[in-house]
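Pasting as-is:
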Amino acid sequence: MKIEENALIANSLGIESRCKVLAKLESVSDLSNLEALLKANSKYYILGEGTNIVPPSYFDGVVIKAEFNHIDIANNILSVGASYNWTELVKFCIQSKINGFENLIDIPGSVGASPVQNIGAYGTEVSSLIDSIDCFCLNTFSKKNLTNLDCDFTYRKSVLKNSQYLIYNVNFISNLEERISYQYASVQKYIDQNSIDPSSLTIEGISNIISNVRSEVLPNPTIINNAGSFFKNPIISKNIINFNNFSEDELIIWNYSDDLIKVGAARLIELIKNNVEPSNNVSIHEHHSLVLVTNGNATQDEVLGYANKIIDLVFETFNIPLEIEPSVII
């Protein structure tokens, strides 16, 4: 285990952030060293690649970063280390003819972070691919295997979020049948505009389409500071919506269950963004209203303050509550 004091906390929002101690775990055997470290510093945060966090200027505790980069296949299970880059895994799966991952290409972050918020895109969620997760409990300081059911996956949630579990390995199902999913509206639009025959699509072909669709609207965090989608799509009862300011046809609404709908948060923000009070260092991305971008000078307070202005205005206009998607480190 490598220990660094007053270390930078890597994050894609470009926030200048440091922590009291950064602990880098280089092998599974390093897990046994965490008990003594955390008894001396009880406050901790588990960090992936920092692409979905809003960190403070200073975190007075231990930031734990697992650096396990292995990948193995046995008995139809693909076991991947927590620090393996997510998109590199998707590319590996496509090359290896492993189905189900293709719609999740180009999502920033690490494999270990993927189950925490049950990442999803273009009609697929990572929960549909996971068999189990190997964790280290930071309360009992013991290893634990969580089954897919144990994780209690829902939309952008799992029991792993803000939990005591440090993920060091994720076990994926590697023998899923090929089911090309292209029904998502923006993907279908790309197929139609480019006269592509859906019956000819392969997992590589659909991944290329989705990569192109993403690049048109979502900024690369290595070029423009952002944490991806900053707000979740609200899941609510339709009868709470205030249609006095905008009609139902102006919103994007999907059926979610017998009693609930899912509302497109991007459209809500698009309709009110011109009324959001400007910030010096934070703004709404010009091509996707779910994405907040910074100029590299923003603090956590500025990012959250700007986000809360959007939340308040959306609620005032539509009576719909928005929830922040990235993890806020406190």
